[in-house]
Amino acid sequence: MPNHEVDMTVARAFSPQVPSVQFDPQTCLHYPTSEEEIVQLVQYASSNNLQVRVIGSGHSVREAILSTASNAINISLEQYRKVTSNSDGTFTVQAGCCLGLDAPEPWENTFFYQLQQLAQAVPDMGGVTHQAVGGFTTMGCSGGSLQYAYTDSIVGISLVDGQGVVRSYSRGKDPEFEAVLVSMGLMGITSTLTFKPNDAFNIIGSETCYALNDVNCPIDFFGPGTPDKPSLEQFMRQTEYTRLMWWPQKGAERIVVWKAQRMTSEDYTTLGMTPENFQPKQYLEFPVVLGSQIPAQIVASLFYQLSAGWPTLVNLIQDPLLRAEITLLIDLTYGPCILPFVIDQFAPVYTGDSPPTEAPQLEIPQGVFSDEVRIVELGKNTGGESMRGAAAQGSAGRRAAGGPVLRLLRPDAPTSADSIRVTSVAIDLWKDVLARMPNASTHLPKLQSLLSERGLKLPRYYHIHVPSDVLEELQPGNRTAPQDAKGKQQFWDSWYRGLPMDNDVSDFLMPTEFTELWIPLEKTQAVMNKLRDFYEQGGLGATGSYSCEIYAAKADELWLSPAYKQDVVRVDVFWFHDLFRDEAALKAFYQQYWELLREYDFRPHWAKYLPEGDLGPAYLARLYPQWNQFLALRARMDPKQLFVTDYWREALGIPQNNS
């Protein structure tokens, strides 16, 4: 295959600092188009003692990406995305090239497309692929396998160090290779990565939702395992690719098990296919409604926006008695009634291979609802902060629009010009929602009484509007796919679409934050039991309304990889970043997990929320045998600390450079 190079140039002004490099004054970003221009930017920063950072796709925690220092050189590599196929079977990829599907560039320009054209593949991949190759690699990201690792296919790296010198390192030849590959941009700006890929492959697998107390579950989630039921640790060792989504909320208590393997000749025979006439059956993250995954994501987003923001919304009620009564009703119904119902819509428990049953027909109570129609609009919150805009440029990530803003409107109210109504039929608040919630109907008389005393009724029907460009990013469901049993689905797909199982999740509609803790695999049973006890005792304050992801990663030799020299189980705690964006509440929620699991010597994922205080540098230094060597090499490669922001100085305990 010839060198793949597409002209991605966008007309921009030139930088007032480095006149040969493109610059956008609105975002304060520099856009180099070559390694030489990256060198020029770093040399200018070195001469003027300025900080330098690369924003990538904006997928990492914002503070881990940007420098907010005055006159800092913040760089986007979206004009630096060339993929070269080399004669020795390797691929050299410029660091700004996006990995695969759902990227902010055409699929044909991504790294995985180039691999697939030559029947090549990386061995494993994380849940999404819109990130840039450089950022995904240097932040230590990983898929969910103990048999394969994305970084196993990387054989070389070139980066521009803090003196503007291009340095190149090869696996097995240069000891620095293991130091610089996962270095969070603190050794230099990654210029290119060289891959020795695998042959392309397809995967086949299933996803099944098990109740925690299901005796027929084939995995012993909390015990040591038996001859016919492996422990969770054993299951992760035996399974090529897997991840678990744990919904621990009272009344829900379930784990969704996604597992897959590379397809064999027997698998193709069973499906009546060959590799040449392979027809994929795609994994679906969300239920298909009206032939698409779109409506379910919109409803999920709406629910989490409302569930996170209801105290603020209720405080808008002027009548203090009504406000107090509505608050009480929500307290009584949300945890035991509403939340389990919603979880069951998106993660129904598998009870057998019988086909799904039709929903029951329900009577409509009189007097609670009016025939008024309301419009729910999920608009964009772009914000006005320039650095937020900088982090979002070129990004399909969740910060691209700051997440959705909820608006409740009357039918005659004007909506945003770029919004589209996505419900082909109205949502009936009673028949489609409230009547399906166990025990909800017992609270309706009280609600009816409160409203009728004030001459009020609930609007019964709702339509939903969503920005049109958000809808364009979402993928439709497979209308012709065979119907799976409730709580279970089977799938088979290509490596580049099947392994990144979360690509169809909209980062706008589901703006999720994470803290991820990597723990030695042999501690899996103890960790699972610790979490179960924590959830049972702590209630909703411990579980939150979202899920927790459990998966594994293969040991490696990379100095600051959280999987350095040990197979790990990973606990990935989700937080829905709602319209109120309460950073203090987020960190308080995560603090519980950091304190709970510190006894298991967790190493945190560098791209996600990091623990603070006594779980900072001193704690981490004890867990990374090469910690001091890493910091010493970092200091030699970046003597002026051009790449060290306050965030990374605090996270790694890098001393201030007073020279």
Automatic annotation (TrEMBL):
<dbReference type="GO" id="GO:0016020">
    <property type="term" value="C:membrane"/>
</dbReference>
<dbReference type="Pfam" id="PF01565">
    <property type="entry name" value="FAD_binding_4"/>
</dbReference>
<keyword id="KW-0285">Flavoprotein</keyword>
<dbReference type="InterPro" id="IPR016169">
    <property type="entry name" value="FAD-bd_PCMH_sub2"/>
</dbReference>
<dbReference type="GO" id="GO:0071949">
    <property type="term" value="F:FAD binding"/>
</dbReference>
<dbReference type="InterPro" id="IPR006094">
    <property type="entry name" value="Oxid_FAD_bind_N"/>
</dbReference>
<dbReference type="InterPro" id="IPR016167">
    <property type="entry name" value="FAD-bd_PCMH_sub1"/>
</dbReference>
<dbReference type="InterPro" id="IPR016166">
    <property type="entry name" value="FAD-bd_PCMH"/>
</dbReference>
<protein>
    <recommendedName>
        <fullName>FAD-binding PCMH-type domain-containing protein</fullName>
    </recommendedName>
</protein>
<keyword id="KW-0274">FAD</keyword>
<dbReference type="GO" id="GO:0003885">
    <property type="term" value="F:D-arabinono-1,4-lactone oxidase activity"/>
</dbReference>
<feature type="domain" description="FAD-binding PCMH-type">
    <location>
        <begin position="22"/>
        <end position="200"/>
    </location>
</feature>
<dbReference type="InterPro" id="IPR016171">
    <property type="entry name" value="Vanillyl_alc_oxidase_C-sub2"/>
</dbReference>
<dbReference type="InterPro" id="IPR036318">
    <property type="entry name" value="FAD-bd_PCMH-like_sf"/>
</dbReference>
<dbReference type="InterPro" id="IPR007173">
    <property type="entry name" value="ALO_C"/>
</dbReference>
<dbReference type="InterPro" id="IPR010031">
    <property type="entry name" value="FAD_lactone_oxidase-like"/>
</dbReference>
<dbReference type="Pfam" id="PF04030">
    <property type="entry name" value="ALO"/>
</dbReference>
<keyword id="KW-0560">Oxidoreductase</keyword>
